[in-house]
Write a structure and sequence with these properties.
The protein is mostly helical. The protein contains 19 helices and no strands.
Length: about 500
């Protein structure tokens, strides 16, 4: 895989033995947390700045940079009442479809090149294109094509992050309590969204270009640190690899998994260091169901990610900064949702069932928030926290613990390189939904925001439907385990009676 990174060579040596392995595992978990936090930090500003690019009933035209005094509003070409939401939605579409396409490619590439180089390059380029969007303000650019092209390129390079960090964490950690570990770790998504909102909000009402430039500098700087310090595999720093024993419960792990194992043999299965194809990843039981579920779950999550500040601004008459700050409460709820989903799925051994329960509660919560969330600040705060808990919980669980479980599925026979492709397939499918959701929201919101919420509720229901078969299998497995336990208890009791 390569030699030790230069930065690690310059650090004081860590003693050999268990303490060395533990130190590196903690370092990797914390480092990848900040890495992907910076990805979300850099993609959040567009949702905050939307409220400034177009303000309804604005009568003050855009003016040159040198003549601005902070009171102007709107930004051509997003300054027309008849199509502003559609144009803003096209920015999301360009970014997210490019991200989805890039995701499928990134997983394929990440398995075949040095992960440290791949991730650091992706972060530096992500910083460059994030900052480039902000330069449109300082260079007084009002051409739609400039912003569309920047969004497309930004989406492509941003897709380098997720397969890389999940593969890195999967290489260092086994399957024990994976839901809890990854539930806590995955809070980087919400933390990044919160920080991105707060940073972008500082300049959104004065010089919105800095709302992009500063996050761009942050992620690019972390990209340099990745090049210097990232160790994507334990072997690079002479640490032992974790055991990849059979995990909690892989939802389709009943009869069809056993059939898959018996059907193949060592010659047919992928070798440990051989990259797998997308079609091979799709053949893993559960991948298709969770991918389709994530399509709709991520559609809902990313619609809120890109449009919630504008919805709050329109519905509650807040300015862009206050709406952005208030929207972070959904991410706060999402942090707890991801952790609780991981803990519950570890304890119950039911990833699919945990997702379905939270999705079932999320649909009515969206209706309640739309109806009562703008009554006053108390209602808004409480409902946003609850909404984030239920919406982001399943999304977090699927993109982390479920992807890692399936990426180390026993049918892969210990293949260490399959995780990036499996992760990319699941999250890539979800990213297509993430592209569709904000686009539909931009079009539908021109008529009525209530219709946007009906679209989100329908998507939430579809996400549940695709997991029904896996829930049935989990329940069936619970019954089998329960019957087995009862038989063991009876046998123990018989032994006790015979001994008396």
């Amino acid at each position: 895989m390569g030699r030790e990174p230069l930065g690690i060579k310059c650090l004081p040596s860590i003693s050999h033995g268990p303490s060395r392995n533990i130190a590196y595992k903690v370092f990797i978990l914390v480092f990848t947390f900040f890495i992907y936090m910076s990805y979300h930090l850099s993609r959040k500003p567009i949702s905050i700045v939307k409220s400034r690019l177009y303000r309804k009933n604005c009568s003050i035209p855009a003016v040159p940079v040198g003549e601005r005094n902070g009171t102007e509003c709107d930004w051509a070409p997003f300054d027309h009442d008849d199509n502003a939401s559609t144009l803003l939605g096209s920015l999301d579409l360009a970014y997210l479809f490019a991200y989805a396409v890039g995701m499928f490619c990134s997983g394929h590439i990440a398995e075949r090149m040095n992960l440290r180089y791949f991730l650091s390059l992706g972060m530096i380029l992500s910083g460059a294109f994030t900052a480039a969007f902000g330069f449109g303000y300082f260079w007084n650019i009002h051409t739609l094509y400039f912003y569309i092209i920047v969004q497309i390129l930004g989406g492509l390079v941003q897709s380098t992050g997720w397969p890389s960090v999940v593969t890195c964490v999967g290489n260092w950690y086994g399957k024990g309590k994976r839901g809890l570990i990854m539930g806590i770790w995955n809070s980087h998504t919400s933390v990044g969204n919160i920080l991105g909102s707060l940073i972008a909000g500082i300049w959104v009402n004065t010089a919105w270009g800095w709302s992009f430039v500063v996050p761009g500098i942050i992620i690019a700087s972390l990209g340099v640190l990745v090049f210097l310090f990232m160790a994507p595999e334990p072997s690079i720093v002479d640490c032992p690899e974790p055991p990849h024993e059979q995990g909690q419960v892989e939802p389709a792990e009943a009869e069809e998994t056993e059939a898959l194992i018996k059907k193949g043999n060592e010659a047919d299965g992928p070798k440990r260091n051989e990259a797998v194809t997308i079609w091979r990843a799709l053949s893993i039981p559960g991948v298709i169901e969770f991918s389709l579920c994530l399509f709709f779950a991520k559609l809902v999550s990313y619609t809120f990610l890109f449009w919630l500040p504008k919805y709050i601004s329109n519905k509650g008459s807040f300015d862009a900064q206050k709406a952005g700050d208030l929207s972070t409460l959904m991410d706060v709820g999402g942090i707890f949702g991801g952790i609780i989903a991981g803990v519950v799925s570890d304890y119950t051994r039911g990833r699919a069932t945990t997702c379905v329960v939270m999705l079932a509660l999320g649909a009515p919560m969206m209706f309640i928030y739309n109806a009562y969330g703008s009554i006053d600040m108390t209602h808004s705060v409480c409902l946003l926290l609850a909404l984030g808990f239920l919406v982001n919980g399943p999304y977090s669980l699927i993109t982390t613990a479920v992807s890692a479980d399936l990426g180390t599925h026993k049918s892969l026979k210990g293949n260490a390189k399959a995780l990036a492709t499996v992760t990319a397939v699941i999250d890539g499918t979800g990213s297509v939904g993430a592209a569709v959701g904000p686009l539909l929201a931009g079009v539908i919101s021109n008529s009525n925001w209530n219709n946007v919420f009906w679209m989100l509720i329908a998507s939430d229901i579809f996400a549940m439907v695709f997991l029904i078969r896996l829930v049935y299998k989990e329940i069936k497995l619970w019954r089998l385990v329960g019957c087995s336990q009862e038989l063991d208890d009876v046998a123990i009791q018989i032994q006790k009676d015979n001994s008396l």
